[in-house]
Structure to design on (274 residues):
């Protein structure tokens, strides 16, 4: 791996743990103004200092993130279809590597849709992006997307999708946590981070997901709704960081969350925009 690529990976996967808590706020690229992300500038501003990386599109980056920010950027570069379509897999590359370099991003991300109608197209998108990323020294994250078919998220399917992504050259793979997750990690020779998916029923369930993923070998999280749809997103991020970076238990994480709440961390609705 060249110096630039290694430097960017090191900024995202931070020493000493070598893990990462990435904050995903790219949902609007196909979902529009999702709940609690309607005013994305107001949502992101208080969270940014607590995330190792923020994942978003170039439009939101240019409009909503101050250029003085030091949080590494994971730039979503695929899209072209919205939730109004039944088949979400018909994606293209929507942002050039040249623009990603101009934005000084730490990595780019695209979705791959294994088993979906546009599987081939999405995997070819990945291969081209990896060629461009290698040229520019910018790592590529493949996101094993399932579109509306959330039930696809089992170890057999995810192991296949992650391995195929790594074989094509993805430097990082984002996938879902599942029963038997260690099999997914075992079969994927590049770092895996885990998405949260739709909002879970309890804080404990979110922390259990994070703990289970890291215990099974994930290198961290790239999580959205279970952070910013939480009533207490900053405490939630702090609790997740303790699990991902400091080997905290779920109980430790809950204690951090409760302690932060007791100290009066403001719910997101009360946070002021940047
Ligand atoms: C949107 C994405 C999200 O970044 C990813 O799903 C993580 O967010 P969440 O934790 O809300 O699932 O790829 O397409």
């Amino acid at each position: 791996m060249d110096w630039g690529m290694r430097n960017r990976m090191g900024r995202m996967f931070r020493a000493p743990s070598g893990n990462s808590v990435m904050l995903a706020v790219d949902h609007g690229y196909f979902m529009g103004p999702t709940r609690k992300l309607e005013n994305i500038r107001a949502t992101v501003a208080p969270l940014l200092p607590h995330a190792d990386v923020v994942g978003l599109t170039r439009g939101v980056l240019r409009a909503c993130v101050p250029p003085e920010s030091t949080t590494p950027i994971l730039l979503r570069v695929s899209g072209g279809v919205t939730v109004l379509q039944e088949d979400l897999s018909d994606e293209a590359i929507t942002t050039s590597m040249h623009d990603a370099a101009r934005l000084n991003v730490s990595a780019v991300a695209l979705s791959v849709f294994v088993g979906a109608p546009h599987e081939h197209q999405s995997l070819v998108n990945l291969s081209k992006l990896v060629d461009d990323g290698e040229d520019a020294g910018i790592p590529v994250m493949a996101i094993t997307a399932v579109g509306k078919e959330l039930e696809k998220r089992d170890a057999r399917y995810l192991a296949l999708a992650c391995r195929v992504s790594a074989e094509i050259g993805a430097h990082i793979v984002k996938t879902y946590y599942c029963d038997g997750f260690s099999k997914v990690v075992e079969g994927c020779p590049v770092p895996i981070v885990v998405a949260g998916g739709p909002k879970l029923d309890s804080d404990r369930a979110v922390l259990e997901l994070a703990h289970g993923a890291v215990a099974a070998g994930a290198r961290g999280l790239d999580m959205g709704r279970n952070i910013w749809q939480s009533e207490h997103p900053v405490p939630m991020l702090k609790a997740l960081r303790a699990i991902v970076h400091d080997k905290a238990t779920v109980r430790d994480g809950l204690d951090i969350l409760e302690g932060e709440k007791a100290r009066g961390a403001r719910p997101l609705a009360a946070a002021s925009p940047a």
